[in-house]
């Protein structure tokens, strides 16, 4: 490609996309092209203008890409945060019962640290094929137990499962003894699950724990 050819507008477009002629040297505030030392001033000016436009276009594209990448990273972080469990489950314990006992009860504390209400829909575990959420109610002086299809946990609130109130009914539990460890999986309406570790306790220890909780509230 000659200097005269470069001065042609169409050839300049070709020049912009040709890697051989895209070697630009920056010297202070001036730009020069390495491969065209013999071109006249008008042609050099055309070359430098074309090169400058190429650099500006490339720089704008790079900045746009970086901004887009940063925005995507931020969105991914927000998505990760939104999927993070907002419920802190602690103090899971289950009453030890004789091996032939058809049912036992489990208790825990749920702390909703989110600004939105959460719903516990069901609980699963390897210790039982059937676990239900139950609530003790006093009606006309009579204590009754009622199954709950779901449990609503208000925003920024704590819900305690304890004897005489909320509890998990564990049907046909596997044989476990005091101090054995087990896990339960909590399932929430928003789709996330949370695995909680617990321990089997004696009825005496359970009553003591319940008494301590009442004393602290």
Question: Your description of this structure?
Answer:
- This protein has 217 residues and is of the alpha+beta class.
- The chain has helices at residues 3-6, 9-17, 41-83, 203-216; strands spanning 24-27, 30-33, 87-95, 103-112, 118-124, 130-139, 142-148, 151-153, 157-160, 166-171, 181-188, 193-201.
- The strands form 2 sheets. Strands 3, 4, 5, 6, 7, 8, 9, 10, 11 and 12 form a 10-stranded mixed sheet that branches. A two-stranded antiparallel ribbon has the order 1-2.
- A hairpin with a 4-residue loop joins strand 11 and strand 12.
- The protein is elongated, with a radius of gyration of 36 Å.
- Residues 9-34 and 78-84 have low confidence and may be disordered.
Rounded Rg = 36 Å
Question: How much of the polypeptide forms β-strand, as a percent range?
Answer: 35-45%
Topology order in helix (H) and strand (E) letters: HHEEHEEEEEEEEEEH
Task: Profile the largest sheet.
Answer: 10 strands, mixed
**Poorly predicted segments:** 9-34, 78-84
Structural class: alpha+beta
What is the total tally of β strands? 12
Distance between the termini: 88 Å
Q: Helical content, roughly?
A: 25-40%
Summed over residues and divided by their number, the pLDDT gives a mean of 75
Number of helices: 4
Principal-axis shape: elongated
Features:
217 residues; alpha+beta; ten-stranded mixed sheet; two-stranded antiparallel ribbon; 4 helices; 32% helix; elongated
């Amino acid at each position: 490609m000659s200097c005269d050819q470069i001065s042609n507008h169409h050839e300049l477009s070709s020049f912009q996309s040709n890697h051989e002629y895209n070697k630009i040297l920056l010297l202070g505030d001036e730009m020069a092209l390495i491969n065209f030392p013999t071109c006249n001033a008008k042609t050099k000016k055309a070359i430098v203008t074309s090169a400058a436009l190429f650099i500006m276009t490339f720089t704008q594209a790079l900045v746009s890409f970086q901004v887009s990448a940063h925005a995507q990273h931020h969105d991914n972080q927000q998505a990760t945060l939104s999927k993070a469990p907002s419920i802190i489950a602690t103090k899971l314990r289950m009453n030890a019962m004789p091996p032939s006992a058809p049912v036992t009860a489990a208790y825990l504390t749920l702390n909703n640290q989110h600004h939105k209400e959460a719903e516990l829909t069901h609980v699963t575990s390897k210790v039982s094929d059937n676990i239900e959420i139950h609530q003790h109610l006093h009606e006309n002086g009579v204590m009754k137990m009622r199954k709950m299809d779901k449990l609503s946990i208000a925003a920024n609130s704590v819900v305690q499962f304890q004897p005489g109130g909320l509890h998990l009914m564990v049907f046909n539990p596997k044989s476990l003894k005091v101090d054995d460890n087990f896990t339960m999986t909590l399932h929430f309406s928003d789709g996330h699950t949370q695995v909680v570790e617990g321990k089997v306790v004696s009825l005496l220890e359970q009553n003591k724990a319940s008494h301590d909780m009442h004393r602290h509230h």
